[in-house]
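Readers of this paper often ask what the protein records in our data store actually look like. Nothing more is needed to write down the fold, since each code stands for a local backbone conformation. Below, we set out a record of this kind in full and without editing:
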Amino acid sequence: MLIWQAHKARVRHIAFDPGGAELATTAGGSKFVSLWHAATGAPAGRLAGHTSYARAVAYSPDGRFVVSTQNEPAARVWDRATGTVAGVLSVDWGADSAAFRADSQGVAVVTRQGVGVWRCADFAGAHPALPPAARFATHRALQRVLYSPCGRYLIANSYHWLRLFDADGRDELGALDDPHGSAAATQLAFAPDGNTLAVVFGLRVHLFAVPDGAEKRVFRGHTNYIHALGFMPDGRALVSAGADGVVRVWDAATGTQTRSFDWGIGKVCAAAVSPDGTLCAAGSENGQVIVWDVD
């Protein structure tokens, strides 16, 4: 286990690079994306250029790019090798979520006018800001967007609106709602094979079959808001973390909790699983980051 004081304010988002050797974090009112060596917690650099505080961050599956959003109408894509801006994405306002396609050829960002999609081949440096190559679900403000690892699907949601699309956004394939009430959807995660979607409704984690939307099972155990959700790479386990300060590991086939971790860092605001499944990382309300071996 490794723990360090990464920030002075709450960690907003945390992500592993595809090799699992590097972490990216955003926090508090910082305008930077901070980079860390996952094995040591030592700084690995930072991505600077936002004009407001940074929000979401994600690596492209091929490791070439990092996308980050901010609390103003522009997201940035960075060339990870050089740390320079590869492209500026013109969005209508600050966005809380961005995701790369499984083939690393495109990136999607949620906005107040739906989902915008950009082609990575169009990136032209810091200027000019690029409009999206495509836009869909334009009738509402959205909170999250996520591509399936298999490359076939995209999911987008606002609090009480959750829709599954094909990866190009041309066809809406289905809608999902809370099967046991009217709670808002707040977190999303695809299983590695793309055939299962995990959704947080309130204090519950639900698994749905993709694309038909049939409910498979429900996980219960958290006592406060769930802020992070992710599958292990083999798809057999699911990790969730939240404001109760506990990171929980679930058997995806049975819905039973198999392990839990309370590192005494207070409310967990963000969490991630390394692509090879050997490490987990979490960020706390007080700015600490913790990395531990799953085994």
Q: What stands out?
A: The chain is about 0% helix and 55% strand.
